Structure prediction request, 112 residues.
Amino acid sequence: MPDAARREKLREDASTSWYWCDESCGAIHVGHTRMGEREKHRMFEDLAADLPDMPIKLREQATRKQVAEVAGARPIRLKELEEGLKHPEGLETLGKVLRAYRVRLGVAMPTG
Prediction:
């Protein structure tokens, strides 16, 4: 995603604030007003960019090995899932991980 598109996405999210770090690193620093709150729902605009973040957030402080054991998947598959759905077993691993977390995926259908 180009930088301009990322900045626009940040601007659209009312719970997000960001600024350019002119002090030392020159990077964009991002903050959320919903930090510490458990997400109740999430909309995906770009599956390739948004989906890998979900298992990382769900995992919290658990190790990949711990999650993989509960989910019945190999830790390497969980690592690959967190890096994207490029591996052929990615969707199967996603299903196992979501079941372990008791998370269900849904879609928002257009109305009208």
Strands lie at 16-20, 28-32. The chain is about 45% helix and 10% strand. The two ends are 30 Å apart (CA to CA). The CA atoms of residues 15 and 33 lie 5 Å apart.
